[in-house]
């Protein structure tokens, strides 16, 4: 990416959980720089610390050691500058799609007319215009997740932190949402940290794929995805894509054996 200072910087981030009285190292000295406007995906075996890494970046968890810097300032708690999208769609069930999307803007004290217009724009971006007045319970899983994306985007966070946002969706909806996310990213250029279990998804979306390893949770390998945007079906089916995917697959599935015993 560019030579300017990183947007997000993990510096010696270390985290130890207490599991039934035993220390368990969930993150072991993670050092990682993410450039402004970069799309970074994180893959790795279950329990390797991906969500822990995201929670630290979101300011929801204070690490036992090290720090995360955003624009050079230390993360000390959640901020509207960092939009978080969790795996389970966290929508307010009693609010319509529009009200959900407007909610963050209301908190930010944006005026009513501006709020309305902005919500409309982002609802359109995720293709939910016809459902703006619907309640979440009447939407499919994919539609709920698109609403959560619109809500996170509308607040205009400089950084988007997404923890397996498409994990629960069927393959077709997933591909559609990947494309609408990339579309929005190309237009609005946020810095994105995106966690996934899916190696294809990790490669399809990213500038770089971070492969983590477990026990202790750490960065195992970083793989550049040297493929152009927009990413298309043609790219997804290309030999270049397959080669990178195979590299990532290999480093996820053939990791060095655990140097630390699991807690009982
Ligand atoms: N609050 C907690 N207390 C104790 N241990 C925890 C806590 N949260 C996570 N852990 C442990 O830390 C490790 C990393 O958890 P984390 O949720 O970050 O993994 P993950 O990579 O996101 O896994 P998955 O892919 O299954 O979502 C796991 O072994 C987990 O058991
Ligand atoms: Mg997780």
Order of helices and strands: EEEHEEEHHHEHEHEEHH
Can you tell me the CATH topology of the largest domain?
A: Rossmann fold
In the predicted model, the low-confidence regions spanning at least 5 consecutive residues are: none
- The side-by-side strand order for the widest beta sheet comes to 6-7-8-3-9-10
Describe the largest sheet.
Answer: 6 strands, mixed
By CATH, the superfamily of the largest domain comes out as P-loop containing nucleotide triphosphate hydrolases
Total individual domains: 2
Bound molecules: adenosine-5'-triphosphate, magnesium ion
Domain ABC transporter: 8-235
Organism: Actinocorallia herbida
GO molecular function, one term: ATP hydrolysis activity
Protein name: NitT/TauT family transport system ATP-binding protein
Give a concise summary.
Helix content is 35%, strand content 25%. With 264 residues, it is of the alpha/beta class.
What report would you give on this structure?
It comes from Actinocorallia herbida. Pfam families: ABC_tran (PF00005). With 264 residues, the protein is α/β, with parallel strands linked by helices. It has 2 domains: 17-26 and 34-56 and 159-257, P-loop containing nucleotide triphosphate hydrolases (Rossmann fold, 3-Layer(aba) Sandwich), CATH 3.40.50.300; 91-156, no CATH class. 35% of the residues lie in helices and 25% in strands. The protein has 8 helices and 10 strands. It has helices at 50-58, 97-107, 112-125, 141-154, 171-188, 199-205, 233-236, 239-253, and strands spanning 8-19, 22-34, 39-43, 65-70, 73-74, 82-85, 159-163, 191-195, 208-213, 218-224. The strands form 2 sheets. The protein has a 6-stranded mixed β-sheet, with helices on both faces. Helix 2 (97-107) crosses helix 3 and helix 6 crosses helix 8 (239-253). The longest helix has 18 residues, at 171-188. It is globular and about 55 Å long. The model has no long low-confidence stretch (mean pLDDT 91). Residues 50-51 line the site of magnesium ion (MG).
């Amino acid at each position: 990416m560019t030579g300017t200072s990183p947007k997000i910087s993990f510096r010696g981030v270390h985290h130890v959980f207490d599991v039934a009285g035993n220390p368990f190292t969930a993150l072991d000295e993670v050092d990682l720089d993410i450039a402004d406007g970069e799309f970074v995906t994180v893959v790795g075996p279950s329990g390797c610390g991906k969500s822990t890494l995201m929670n630290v970046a979101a300011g929801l968890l204070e690490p036992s050691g090290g720090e995360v810097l955003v624009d050079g300032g230390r993360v000390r708690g959640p901020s509207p500058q960092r939009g978080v999208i969790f795996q389970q769609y966290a929508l307010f069930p009693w609010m319509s799609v529009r009200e959900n999307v407007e909610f963050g803007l209301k908190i930010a004290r944006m005026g009513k007319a501006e709020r309305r217009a902005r919500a409309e724009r982002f609802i359109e971006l995720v293709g939910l215009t016809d459902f703006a007045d619907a309640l979440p319970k009447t939407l499919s899983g994919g539609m709920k997740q698109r609403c959560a994306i619109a809500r996170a985007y509308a607040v205009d966070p400089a950084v988007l932190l997404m923890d397996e946002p498409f994990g629960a969706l069927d393959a077709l909806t997933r591909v559609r949402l990947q494309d609408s996310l990339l579309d929005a990213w190309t237009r609005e250029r946020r810095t994105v940290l995106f966690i996934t279990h899916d190696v294809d998804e990790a490669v399809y979306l990213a500038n770089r794929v971070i492969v983590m390893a477990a026990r202790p949770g750490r960065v195992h390998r970083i793989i550049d995805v040297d493929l152009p945007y927009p990413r298309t079906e043609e790219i997804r089916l290309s030999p270049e894509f397959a080669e990178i995917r195979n590299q990532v697959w290999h480093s996820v599935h053939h990791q060095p054996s655990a140097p630390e015993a699991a807690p009982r």
